Amino acid sequence: MAASGGYSRDHAVVIGGSIAGLCAARVLSDCYARVSVYERDELPSAPANRATVPQDRHLHMLMARGADEFEGLFPGLLKDMVAAGVPVLENRPDRIHLGAAGHVLGTGHTLRDEFTAYVPSRPHLEWQLRKRVQEIDNVGIVRRSVAEPRFDRARQRVTGVVLDPLDQGEPEFVPAGLVVDAAGRGTRLPVWLEQWGYQRPVESTIDIGINYASQQFRMPEGLIAEKVVVAGASHDQSLGLGMLHYEDGIWVLTTFGVANAKPPRTFPEMLALADKLLPAHFSAALVRAQPVGEPAYHAFPASRWRRYHKLDRFPAGIVPFGDAVASFNPTFGQGMTMTSLQAGHLRRALQSPVDDLARELNRATAKTTYPVWMMNAIGDITFHHAGTKDRIPWWWRPSGALFDQFLGAAETEPVLAEWFLRRFSLLDSLYMVPPPRIIGGAMRHNMRLWLRERRQAIKDRRGAVTTLRSL
Ligand SMILES: Cc1cc2nc3c(=O)[nH]c(=O)nc-3n(C[C@H](O)[C@H](O)[C@H](O)COP(=O)(O)OP(=O)(O)OC[C@H]3O[C@@H](n4cnc5c(N)ncnc54)[C@H](O)[C@@H]3O)c2cc1C
Questions:
Q1: Ligand 1 touching residue 38 (CB < 6 A)
Q2: Cβ–ligand 1 contact at 58 (below 6 Å)
Q3: Bridge partners of 231?
Q4: 52: nearest Cα among 182, 165, 173
Q5: 115: Cβ below 6 Å to ligand 1?
Q6: 28, 35 in Cβ contact below 8 A?
Q7: Rg of the chain on CA atoms, in Å
Q8: Beta-ladder partners of 148
Q9: Residue 5 confidence (pLDDT) above 60
Q10: How far is the CA of 466 from the centre of ligand 1 (A)?
């Protein structure tokens, strides 16, 4: 393919064949003659857990927005997932139990706008994407580990990647006009940048100290109507849980602790937590749950955002992608959806006449990352006792307190609950700052509540006085 923006479009390389790598490969296949995805892990030919993505044993929520974006990248995906048994919740908010920051949202009401959610397991979703990428003629997925990108100092650009040797062989150089770093949160790109004479990106971190413990299980069909169950941690409760009903009738129960709290380790202990955090009808059903396989554990010390967009200089020929840029508090379930949004940015950057692909992509990614990162950080600092070395803007804590009020009102006000559900699912504006109309609704609700409580208190006091007098 013709050179564009000063680099060849003959060959692009993607490091990592997980969700981000597969999305990048799909986009690149339209713009490059050849695309090679190098993945160090064994890639199963059917949905299965993988060694280098330990998070795939734990609850993975696909946000409604992510489903839309993945469908845009891979037309027909959603229909095929449903045909393969993936549950779909079409305008059925009553199938969702959404507890956030100690409030259970009133999502059981009729929604005004279309809302569809899909509930594939993480291995199933990845397998569906991989199958589709493998079918693209000009894309190859190869099981090889990338040692490092090769940097040409004279041209200040990456010219390809060096693959780790096979058996006793030699490292192998693969030339490429573009390298996409989709190696996940553990990427070494910041180190490589420094070695090449660039600055490392500033990293924002929120020390959330999350510990996960998950167990898959089966239980007789129809005992629970809900297929998506979330009871997030709150200010007074550092343990939370999520439960999803995946394809093949399999369920996953993930329990977690924030601020380094330890979740239960055995299935009976996990069920005891569910008993405490969920309404009674869940416990009644869960007594019939039969565990499948062993429990899995995972620690996630901090959310991390590498702010590549702030760098004055960035080498040509390489871009960071997916969790390699930002990995969000997983209990909010946003990572895959944020990656799917970034795929759109990559497509637009590749189609843009501007020369500096990395700058274009890094900026666009920062724009969608910022609101979600900020809202998560406010929530984590206000409700989850998270720490950070970053400077906290003065308005974060008051915003968190206001948001708490808002969620309280959303327990019984369907309009507010729907507003939250759509933002939580990243369907509408990524900013969680409610417009005045919605804030007004929350204030009116809380005012009514306060007045009712005051009136009741006065009534109780009068009652007590009358009782005393009659004695
Ligand atoms: C516990 C947990 C729960 C989560 N829950 C959710 C959720 O509910 N919803 C959601 O949307 N997101 C969730 N996420 C986030 C989600 O898993 C990621 O956002 C998503 O996997 C995209 O990540 P990625 O593809 O960038 O990186 P990863 O999935 O980490 O994959 C990186 C890939 O790169 C490969 N690789 C690395 N280095 C090399 C190399 N040198 N050579 C070749 N290959 C290499 C690895 O083998 C791996 O396959 C969760 C994350 C965690 C940790």
A1: yes
A2: yes
A3: 99, 241
A4: 182
A5: no
A6: yes
A7: 24
A8: 162
A9: no
A10: 66
